[in-house]
Design brief:
By secondary structure, the chain is an alpha/beta fold. The chain has helices at 9-26, 42-51, 64-85, 98-118, 133-155, 161-174, 190-220, 250-263, 271-274, 281-290, 307-323, 359-367; strands at residues 238-243, 268-269, 292-299, 328-332, 348-349. Strands 2-1-3-4-5 form a five-stranded parallel β-sheet. It is globular and about 65 Å long.
């Protein structure tokens, strides 16, 4: 579930500052891919947590969703940098420049630091270190499944799933997770074992989301929710900015959405009404995105055929990463294949006529989690 980690701006600024310093200090001597200095500095990480009031069960930092959110932001930032620089995509035969190589190494280091921070102390060679739901999920998705599928694809058999699944069952019992068979555990074929690991990962992600919801419910009890602000510039100007492909029927949907949301009392920004005619397009785009609580991406197959649309959504993703928020909401009006940088965001499906919940009502509810901006 999306949630803004209110009050943790200084925490993440300190964390990312330390990681930047490490990289500038040690990258000249090379680094081992897949490692992070956090692995050997867990006490320092705990001290930072204590200074900022972050507990080990705080889902704003230590949850599957918080990890995936930061991971998505890192990947979106890297994708945008490659697009701006015109660098070759993976698999290209074009020679890679030293600048590209250096930036790619920094991207890789960010991924490693992100993983080590969100799952502190996890060592996949020792399953006993998977002592929380997020760590067990990471152990399964980033080690057990990866190894099993690699061995299966390269040697014809994974050689590990039966034993590893039984170890995962045992670990789930210790974490008091229900829906786990009791010993003696069943046996599995290779494909059945891999499928079971995926199933367990999905269960853990659901449990993690439930724990996060419970955490936020307990924190918000008896407290009013405040609208996010834009720092020194005061309150944000719009409740939502609509990003859409300027062709039919996408444009028609966007225009109707503006009317529906404005009728419900929300302030909405859209290029046709809010971009200044004497200003640069990218300047107006960034202004509206930064001054909106949410960016609503009207998603169809046509959306990803437009460079401007992708740029709008990616800008929101990069801003989300910098501010540690999640304010990009895909509105799916036709089924479309989501790119990697948008993967993991549920969005709202407007294409399902049999939906149990009216998608417009669902969107209004999200926008009303904080009070609409006064007219």
């Amino acid at each position: 579930m999306p949630f803004p980690p209110v009050g943790l701006e200084a925490y993440f600024a300190e964390i990312h500052g330390i990681e930047d310093e490490w990289y500038s200090r040690y990258s000249g001597n090379g680094r081992i891919i897949g490692t992070s200095l956090w692995n050997g500095r867990l006490r320092e990480l705990a001290e930072i947590d204590n200074r900022h009031g972050v507990r080990t069960n705080d889902p704003r930092v230590y949850s599957i969703q918080s990890y995936k959110r930061e991971l998505d932001g890192i990947e979106a930032e890297w994708a945008m940098l490659k697009q701006v620089k015109g660098w070759p995509m993976p698999g290209s035969n074009v020679a890679e420049s030293p600048e590209f190589w250096k930036a790619e190494c920094r991207f890789s280091a960010k991924l490693d630091d992100c993983r080590a921070r969100h799952f502190p102390g996890l060592d996949s060679l020792h399953d006993e270190t998977a002592d929380t739901i997020p760590k067990l999920w990471a152990h399964i998705t980033q080690h057990l499944i990866v190894v099993a599928e690699f061995l299966s694809n390269n040697s014809g058999q994974s050689q590990l799933p039966g034993q590893e699944v039984r170890q995962v069952y045992s670990r789930m019992h210790r974490l008091n997770i229900s829906s786990v068979p009791n010993p003696p555990y069943p046996t599995f074929t290779e494909s059945e074992a891999i499928d079971e690991l995926y199933r367990i990962a999905n269960i853990l992600e659901q449990k993690d989301a439930e724990q996060s919801a419970s955490f936020f419910d307990s924190r918000s009890a008896g407290r009013s929710v405040r609208r996010p602000r834009s720092g020194v510039e005061g309150e944000l100007e719009f409740d939502a900015f609509i990003s859409y492909r300027r062709v039919m029927p996408d444009q028609e949907f966007a225009r109707k959405l503006v009317r529906d949301l404005e009728d419900a009392g929300f302030k909405v920004a859209i290029d046709e009404c809010n971009f200044q005619p004497n200003a640069m397009f990218l300047d107006e785009l960034e202004r509206c995105i930064k001054n909106s609580r949410f960016t609503l991406a009207v998603v169809s197959p046509r959306y990803f055929q437009s460079g401007n649309c992708e740029q709008e959504a990616k800008i929101r993703k990069v801003i989300d990463m910098a501010e540690q928020t999640l304010r990009l909401i895909p509105l799916i009006i036709e089924p479309a294949t989501m790119p990697t940088w948008m993967y993991g965001i549920t969005g709202i499906n407007f294409s399902d006529a049999d939906s149990l919940v009216n998608p417009l009502d669902k969107l209004k509810k999200v926008l009303t989690l904080t009070a609409p901006i006064p007219a």
